[in-house]
Specification:
The chain is of the alpha/beta class. The chain folds into two domains: 3-134, Response regulator (Rossmann fold), CATH 3.40.50; 152-258, Beta Barrel (OB fold (Dihydrolipoamide Acetyltransferase, E2P)). It is built from eight helices and 15 strands. The protein has helices spanning 12-23, 37-47, 63-71, 89-94, 107-124, 128-143, 195-202, 248-258; strands spanning 3-8, 28-30, 51-55, 78-83, 99-102, 154-157, 162-165, 170-176, 179-184, 188-191, 207-211, 214-217, 221-226, 232-236, 243-246. The strands form four sheets. A five-stranded parallel beta sheet has the order 2-1-3-4-5, with helices on both faces. Strand 14 and strand 15 form a beta hairpin. It is globular and about 55 Å long. Mean pLDDT is 83; it is low at 128-148.
């Protein structure tokens, strides 16, 4: 079951820590993170997450107040509150929060919260299971390339111009905050496509999702460097020897592909 997760956290280090931990889970699809309650309400409408990991102390609109407004929606995401204070626990569970995490929390405690989220989604029979089915179908299509139409040109409209790019010339694609950037050997482009849309379009050209924010052309990898905690960096054949991260979750699949086992 695939779970769409949104992080609402104004502290940069805490936000990045959660993003890193969640990026290691194969069943989690991370939505863009937000830094205050008002932005949360806007982005929930746009991205429709299954669950929000919501910091209680946030600027502009506190987490408790943001959760109350989310509960007014016809389809509300599950809420897991994160905070350094325990005095809000009664209010949090009064809003039917799935869990209440006190900072600093361990990965084991976070896994416990995710387990509760999974069980609650199953109980509610939320569309997350349908999302997983869709992902599985996309993966099958990518592996059986003859079933995917192989585009000869990629049209990239950045709002100012439309560039025509040969997909095989692309070295990697990177999601930078809310902007998707495409890099060839000599040029950089901004794209209105999402990373997932580009993953589908470029599947016949040996591209691999190495990380939640990166899509890399396997034909331009020069070297694989071990990094830390069973993760890797891919060194590309371009002039600056660009390094592309490989998450722990993606490393096993990457090795199978490069060894011709998939």
């Amino acid at each position: 079951m695939s779970i769409k997760v949104m992080i609402a956290e104004d502290e940069k280090l805490a936000r990045e820590e959660l993003e890193f931990i969640f990026s290691e889970y194969t069943d989690i699809e991370l939505c863009p993170s937000v830094i205050n309650g008002r932005e949360l309400l806007e982005k929930v409408e746009e991205y429709q997450p299954d669950v929000v990991f919501l910091d209680i102390e946030m600027p502009e609109l506190a987490g408790i107040d943001a959760a109350k407004k989310l509960r007014e929606r016809e389809s509300s995401p599950l809420i897991v509150f994160t905070t350094a204070y325990d005095q809000y626990a009664v209010d949090a569970f009064g809003l039917n929060a799935v869990d209440y995490l006190l900072k600093p929390y361990t990965e084991e405690r976070l896994e416990e919260a995710l387990s509760r989220v999974r069980k609650e989604l199953q109980r509610l029979d939320r569309p997350a299971s349908a999302n997983e089915k869709e992902k599985s179908e996309k993966l099958t299509t990518a592996k059986n390339k003859e079933q995917s139409p192989k585009i000869s040109k990629l049209l990239l409209d950045d709002g100012n111009r439309v560039s025509v790019v040969n997909p095989a010339s692309i070295y990697y694609v990177m999601r930078d905050e809310r902007v998707v950037r495409i890099f060839t050997k000599d040029n950089e482009y901004e794209s209105k496509f999402t990373l997932q849309e580009l993953e589908e379009k470029l599947a016949p050209y040996h591209f691999f999702r190495s990380h939640r924010s990166y899509l890399v052309n396997l034909d331009v990898i020069e070297e694989i460097q071990p990094w830390f905690n069973r993760t890797y960096n891919l060194v590309l054949k371009d002039h600056p020897k660009t390094k592309i991260p490989v998450s722990r979750a993606a490393a096993k699949d990457l090795m199978k592909i490069l060894q011709g086992k998939e």
